[in-house]
Amino acid sequence: MSQMLTSKTATFQRRSYLGIFWFNGIVSGVLMGLFGIGALLAAGIDRYAENRSDYRGNLCFVFIVDNVFRCIGYGWRGILSWQIIRFSLLLFPAAILGMWLSTKIDMRLSEEQIRKAILVLLVTSGVFLIINNAHI
């Protein structure tokens, strides 16, 4: 079962799933826009990226574009206050430390181990989102 979820599809099979790819892109884009949830997008990009580098590049590009628009929108609507900006700057060293640690860990893991870890993290984050928002 886990191999089916983490295995890559052959190039010729990917073309036949183009409709699913677009549907996933639209639904995940709406979810990111409404709730800031990118797990579905991350899973979708993982299925179509050729290797780890492609996956990271595509995901970083999407999240950078999303966050630039989100920051502009939050600033425009007055949601982004100076207190939030100061708090974000205070957390910036922790983000840099996390990126450094993840790079060190990434160099020691195989691509298959990374795919399984991503799947576990996506499922775990989904479960926590459901639990935290169960009152809705």
Shape: globular
Q: Level of helix content?
A: over 70%
Estimate nothing, just give the exact number of structural domains. Answer: 1
Structural class: mainly alpha
SSE succession: HHHHHHH
Number of strands: 0
Report the major sheet: none
Ranges where pLDDT stays below 50 over 5 or more residues in a row are: 1-7
Q: What proportion strand?
A: under 5%
Continuous helix count = 7
Mean pLDDT metric? 78
Distance between the termini: 32 Å
Q: What's the alpha carbon Rg, rounded to whole Å?
A: 17 Å
Overview of this protein structure:
There is one protein chain. This protein is mostly helical and 136 residues long. The protein has one domain (2-132). Helix content is 84%, strand content 0%. It has 7 helices and no strands. The two termini are 32 Å apart.
In brief:
This protein has 136 residues and is mostly helical. It contains seven helices and no strands.
